Amino acid sequence: MSEPELLLDSNIRTWVVLPIVFITFVFGIIRHYLSLLMASENSITLDSLRDGQALMRSRYLRENGKYIPRQAFLARKEFLLRKEGVITQGKEKVAPPRNPMTDPSMMTDMLKGNLLNVLPMIIIGGWIQWAFSGFVTTKVPFPLTIRFKPMLQRGIELEALDVSWVSSASWYFLNVFGLRSMYSLILGENNAADQTKMMQDQMSGAAMAMQNDPQKAFKAEWEALQITKHQDSMKYIEDIVVAMHALPEDKFTTEKIPSIQASP
Amino acid sequence: MEMSYDEAIKQLREWRNASMRKSTEIVEIGEYLLKKSSMSLFNDEVWLIFEQVYVAALDISRFDLADFCMKKLKGNFPDSVRIIKLEAMQLEACGEYDEALKIYNELIERDPTNAGVRKRKVALLKSKGDNTGAIKELCSYLHDFMVDHEAWYELSELYIKEMDYAKAAFCFEELILCNTFNHLYHQRYAEIRYTMGGQENIEIARKHFSQAVKLSSNTNMRALNGLLYTSYTMTSAKSSSKSGNSRSHATWAAKMILKKYEDADVKCMTVRRKETPEFLASATLMLKHLGTESNP
Questions:
Q1: Binding-face residues of B in 65-84 toward A, CB within 8 A
Q2: Burial of A172 by CB count in 10 Å (0-12 exposed, 13-18 middle, 19+ buried)?
Q3: Can you give the pLDDT of all 264 residues of chain A as single tens digits?
Q4: Do A241 and B214 touch (CB under 8 A)?
Q5: Is the pTM value of this prediction over 0.80?
Q6: With contacts defined as CB-CB under 8 Å, which chain B residues touch A42?
Q7: Number of C-alpha atoms within 13 angstroms, CB side, residue A141?
Q8: Positive/negative CA dihedral, A137, A140, A143, A146
Q9: Which residue of B113, B213, B259 is in closest CB contact with A247?
């Protein structure tokens, strides 16, 4: 059953739809520049750098150790795993627990992140809902189920209204996600107005976990390297090469083989 | 200058990303761009271009252009470690190594995690001719930055200059660990081992030469030659199984080399006839020798 289409006042378009787009866009840009101003200097210490590099080196040794001579591999393994070796040192090092509450730098980072991203969204969302409520703003081009009704039609209390007609608040949220590609066009990649990346970061706490506990990483690396044995991958390499690129004269013979020659 | 602005900028960017040292061309294009165009055209990239042209100007002793670039850079970034490093490079270019060394030491003390400055110090010591000092500095750098393969390569070059082949081989092992599938690393490592000499080293060299041949799909001529020489040397090995194997490998390698030169000769007629016969002569000689040995 196709309902008669609602005809919206063109004033809605001029004074609601476009201003909301404009507001979202401008606030996104403001957010980007503010974050640039408030960016904290994450200076990396020599120790953490050395630790990271040592872990990488140990990983390379584990994975590619079979391509270097046995002596070389054993020498390196010994160097990394002995008492004064880098990996054992890293394992022994007791890292201070990075409790978010007590660690001041992490606290400020969190505060800044929250302040810059979540707070404006809440404030502006709330203001729009208060200012532009009570009327239908736009229609989404696809049909939705009844469950979305309270979410998308906040200020409008009409039961029979098609769920595709949405209020201004939902138009605002649509904009927040939709203008992401516009931001990358204007501000270049990696801009701070891109909120979805921030949300992705929150979900992948793996990166945070790595920084918080290098000791665990060292322990894992120590154990893995301990059990790695050297396999001689190049034992028969010359034969392999000769076989792979054999010359025709070695493969085929022009002699007549009497047993195969068919008897007439 | 026939290039348009866009083309020129694109070319400079390509060279910058590939770290190519085309100093004369960079200075030519850069001078044209920087003195004659308005800067608003390329917004932030202009500072990178300034830096690139500055270094190129120092390379060909165009100190006037270098001063011009430095003035602009300093004007915009008054308090920057990168700018100080560039200024010290100018001192290096003028030959005032001690002054530059003092500045680098200061910068390193200020921020020991700045890899660029530390590498710059190594380059200074190298251009002074102080190989041992450069090696020491590079070792302490590698102590902190263990996975910098360019640094390991540079260290191996320095060791080769000092003829300390064992340590050069160590550096190349590090390189092989980082990039296992680079046939050039295997080939050079094998060459170092071959130079060191001795039964074991030649065996290791042979293995790595064959690995290089395998990885390069039989196109690495140096590795092929290396395989030939190492196998040939090992035909006179004490154990008969090894020498038997080596004979077949050496024969194969010699035949392959001759075949490849035949193919190449057909393709490019400009091959310098004087040199190749000598080169081939060793392969043909070895082949003959191997042939007569196997048929007594």
A1: none
A2: buried
A3: 345 577 777 777 778 888 888 888 888 888 878 777 776 666 777 888 888 888 888 889 888 888 888 888 899 888 888 877 777 777 777 655 555 555 566 666 667 766 777 788 888 888 888 887 777 777 778 877 878 777 777 777 777 777 777 888 888 888 888 887 777 777 665 555 555 555 555 544 434 444 456 778 888 888 888 888 888 877 788 888 888 887 777 777 777 777 665 555
A4: yes
A5: no
A6: none
A7: 0
A8: negative
A9: B259
The two structure tokens encoding residue A38? 């408030």
β-bridge mates for residue A166, sequence order: A138
Nearest residue to A232 via CA among A78, A75, A67, A58: A67
**Going by C-beta distance under 8 Å and a sequence separation of 6 or more, which residues neighbour residue B293?**
B235, B247
Q: How many CB atoms lie within 10 A of CB A30?
A: 13
The tens digit of pLDDT for each residue in B164-179 reads 999 999 999 999 999 9
Q: Which residues on neighbouring strands pair with residue A139, listed in sequence order? A: A165
Q: Where are the alpha helices (DSSP H) in chain A?
A: 10-12, 18-38, 46-64, 70-81, 86-92, 104-113, 119-131, 149-152, 168-178, 180-187, 195-203, 206-212, 214-226, 237-244, 248-251
Are B264 and B271 in contact by the 8 Å Cβ rule? The answer is yes
Report how far residue B204's alpha carbon sits from residue B191's, in angstroms, rounded to the nearest whole number: 10
Tokens 């990396």 locate to: A44
Say which of A54, A69, A246 has its CB closest to residue B146: A54
Partner A contacted by B115 (CB < 8 A): no
**Token representation of residue B148:** 């910098």
Instruction: Report yes or no for ipTM above 0.85.
Output: no
Interchain contact, A57 vs B147, CB within 8 Å:
yes
Enumerate the residues of chain A whose CB falls inside 8 A of the CB of residue B241.
Answer: none
Query: Residue B207 and residue A249: Cβ atoms within 8 Å?
Result: no
B91: Cβ contacts below 8 Å, ≥ 6 apart:
B97, B99, B100, B103
